[in-house]
Each structure stands twice: as structure tokens, then as C-alpha cells.
Write a structure and sequence with these properties.
With 215 residues, this protein is an alpha+beta fold. Helix content is 46%, strand content 18%. A 5-stranded antiparallel beta sheet has the order 3-2-1-4-5, with no helix packed on it. Strand 1 and strand 2 (16-21) form a beta hairpin. Helix 2 crosses helix 3 and helix 3 packs across helix 4. It is elongated.
């Protein structure tokens, strides 16, 4: 039976979650192997369509779970799937996502200005400043590799490695990966540690710039 609903719980580490149909009280289990989303991964609050099946003695299970606007290249979208009443296909971003977007809108430009100033006053060597974008590329790659491994049940990248990548300067790329890949975006504990690494990076950078005289 084809249904539409919202992902209400998602465990990124264990690779499973629960989806709830509109107007229903029961949550339906699904595994990462049954999710179809291309570069979009499962996250809490994501509106999806799915096929509900019933396995004897184990309750309902959601198969072929996919975002409402995902076009499966292997088969056309069922014509009978209706749009939402407001005409949209995707649920609005959760409040924490909006807050993070606003924070990044301030932090990233300020970070660029600070690095340019540090290079201009020679508080940081120009090669060091020029290498900073590479740290974001590295962080993005690590997140992508971890998501790829999670979808295939392969060996995962430890969360500590992801956090170190943010701490040493790759935090913009890490945030972009979490946003675009929808990876590590729903786990509150991970988000908290991520923002702690961002704050610590800024604090260490400020301490270095303060203690290093201009040349």
C-alpha cells in the first residue's frame, strides 16, 4: 500500500528509523537499505512516500522510502500520488536547521574577513590561509565517505574523525556536508559536539591572533 508520511525518528548510527503517515498514530519501521533519495539522506521531519508491507508477527514495515520530490530513475512516479494541500512537496526545514543556516550566514563571511585580515597583517602565513578551504573539502569528503559506507553497511568513519576535521578548520565544509547530504543532521548529540568544535576553533584562532603581533 502506497502512503505518504513524515520521518519522525532516525538513528543515523544504526541506520534505521520510523515513518508516520498523516493522521496515523503508529510508527512504521524502515531501514537505510530501503531508502531511496539519491544525495538526500533520511532525517527527522523529512516528508516521504513509501510502500507499507506487513510481515507476519513483526508488524508493518516501510519499503521504497523516498522524499516526495525524488524521481526514481528505475521507475516512474505513481500517477496517483497526490501533492500536499499547499502544493509543496517538501516539509519546511526543522527549527534547528533554520538556526544553523542563520548562524552560518554570519560566521562564514566573518571567518573569511578574519582570515584575510590575518594574512594582511602577517599574523598568519598566506599559505596557511590558502590551505583553509582544503580543510573544508577534506571534511566534506569524510562526511560523504561515511554516508556512502552507511548506505552499504561498510566500515564507517569514526565520529571523532569528523569532529577533528571541523576543529582544525573544516567546519564550513562539515556543515555543508551535513546539510546537502543530510548526514549527521538529525542526531542532537552530534550537532552539539559539532558546534562545540566550531566554538573551540574560533577561540583558539582568536587566541593565536591576539598573541601574535603584526609584522
Amino acid at each position: 500500500m502506497n502512503k505518504q508520511g513524515t520521518i519522525v525518528r532516525w538513528d543515523d548510527e544504526r541506520g534505521f528509523g520510523f515513518v508516520r503517515a498523516a493522521g496515523a498514530n503508529a510508527d512504521v519501521f524502515f531501514h537505510i537499505r530501503d531508502f531511496r533519495g539519491g544525495s538526500t539522506g533520511p532525517s527527522e521531519g523529512l516528508a516521504v512516500r513509501y510502500e507499507e508491507i506487513h510481515v507476519g508477527g513483526k508488524g508493518p514495515r516501510a519499503m521504497a522510502v523516498a522524499p516526495l520530490d525524488y524521481v526514481d530513475p528505475r521507475r516512474p512516479l505513481p500517477a496517483e500520488l497526490p501533492r500536499r494541500r499547499d502544493g509543496s512537496k517538501r516539509a519546511p526545514p526543522p527549527p534547528h536547521v533554520l538556526a544553523e543556516m542563520r548562524a552560518m550566514g554570519l560566521l562564514v563571511p566573518a571567518y573569511i574577513v578574519l582570515l584575510v585580515w590575518a594574512a594582511w597583517t602577517q599574523r598568519l602565513l598566506v599559505p596557511v590561509v590558502l590551505s583553509v578551504p582544503l580543510l573544508s573539502v577534506l571534511a566534506f569528503y569524510l562526511y560523504w565517505r561515511d554516508k556512502f559506507a552507511a548506505q552499504r553497511g561498510a566500515r564507517r568513519t569514526p565520529e571523532a574523525v569528523l569532529h577533528v576535521a571541523s576543529l582544525i578548520g573544516g567546519w564550513p565544509g562539515a556543515w555543508l556536508a551535513r546539510r546537502l547530504l543530510r548526514h549527521k543532521s538529525a542526531k542532537e548529540e552530534f550537532r552539539t559536539i559539532y558546534w562545540a568544535t566550531v566554538a573551540l576553533h574560533w577561540a583558539l584562532l582568536a587566541l593565536w591572533l591576539y598573541s601574535t603581533p603584526a609584522r
